[in-house]
Design a protein that fits this description.
This protein has about 350 residues and is α/β, with parallel strands linked by helices. The protein contains 14 helices and twelve strands. The chain has a seven-stranded parallel β-sheet, sandwiched between helices. The longest helix has 21 residues.
Length: about 350
């Protein structure tokens, strides 16, 4: 049986869909019952029989920091896909993120070693990579360099990835994937929130560049890496590098909305997060822009997918195709006019 952590997340829900579709016995841990409904929703995007596939998942309530619960979750398990993590750029989440991402991963690695788990796949991030010199493409050998530009999220994932490398040194058959920014439908308030912002009339963009990949491709790569037993290595999983302007232009195109047209200089993004910090303090609400968001949005990072393409022969869904489909799902859910939005998404 396979154990999946983080199954109620964007990537985890796509991974669960692929696993149950292949008739693999799956156990998924969760902490919030309500979030399981988002998994059911994701299933409905890709099949006419979501309930049938969703019913194949063996759900179990457990916390990564609870040894007793995790030992029960690992009973009878031969493979682990560890996708559980907190992704946040908000200061109030930093301590919890460090605890779950680092200590939770260390605990799972220790338990996997103790119970002699046969295969282990860890979902890391491109955030754990260093930055290539002279604006070159980052690859699996671009190693981490401490910097003030590194977000607390990236620090947490780097420390967690080190725990997996430690497990590998102690005999764990593990492979690490480093996805770029994951694109997928259904999580409109968080992971998929950019689609909502563009639909609502986002007017600004920065000069930043990043890598993007469809959630389906990440899930497929994880399963194939485990099947091919490519342990003791890490693999960047990224389809294409896009500027934020290109990304927003594509979203606006398929949402039938005006594209963002105002270029925001780095100095203005630094002013914006400070103003937003004051507003959120006064109103006691979550800031729309944080210092980490502003810093990341101004950076130019590109990534090479050569290694995984050569080892698995994988061909990626293009970001434009991914965005077109996701926009179609979004419009079907939020556009009140019957049939609207179909012209650009077909």
């Amino acid at each position: 049986m396979i154990l999946v952590t983080g199954g109620t997340g964007l990537l985890g829900s796509h991974l669960l869909f692929d696993l149950v579709k292949q008739d693999k016995p799956v156990r998924a841990i969760f902490r919030n019952t309500g979030k399981k409904e988002r998994v059911r929703k994701v299933f409905s995007y890709y099949t006419d029989h979501p309930e049938e596939l969703f019913a194949r998942i063996h759900w179990m309530e457990a916390d990564l920091m609870d040894d007793g619960a995790m030992e029960m979750a690992l009973d009878g398990i031969s493979e682990v896909f560890h996708a559980g993590a907190i992704v946040s750029f908000y200061p109030k989440d930093h301590n919890q993120m460090l605890k779950i991402n680092v200590a939770g991963t260390a605990n799972l690695v220790n338990l996997a070693l103790h119970w002699k788990i046969e295969k282990f796949c860890y979902v890391s991030s491109i955030a754990t990579l260093g930055r290539a010199e002279n604006d070159g493409e980052n690859n699996e050998d671009t190693f981490w360099v401490p910097s003030k530009k590194n977000s607390v999220y990236s620090q947490s994932k780097y420390a967690a990835e080190r725990e997996v490398w430690r497990g590998i040194a102690e005999g764990l058959n593990a492979v690490i994937v480093n996805p770029s920014v994951i694109l997928g439908p259904g999580f409109w308030e968080d992971n998929s929130g950019l689609f909502r912002l563009v639909y609502q009339g986002l007017k600004y963009y920065t000069k930043g560049v990043n890598g993007y990949v469809d959630a389906r491709d990440v899930a497929r790569a994880m399963i194939e890496l485990m099947e091919n037993e490519l342990f003791g290595e890490r693999f960047i999983v990224s389809a294409e590098n896009l500027s934020y302007h290109q990304l927003f232009m594509l979203m606006a195109k398929y949402l039938d909305k005006p594209a963002p047209s105002f270029h925001v200089l780095p100095v203005l993004t630094q002013i914006a997060w400070r103003v937003e910090a004051v507003r959120s303090f006064v109103t006691r609400s979550k800031p729309e822009v944080t210092r980490e968001m502003a810093t990341t949005a101004a950076q130019i990072y590109t990534y090479s997918n050569q290694k995984i393409r050569e080892r698995l022969g994988i061909e990626f869904i293009s970001p434009e195709e991914s965005i077109r489909e996701i926009c179609g799902f979004f419009l079907n859910e939020f556009n009140p006019e019957p049939g609207s939005g179909s012209g650009n998404t077909g």
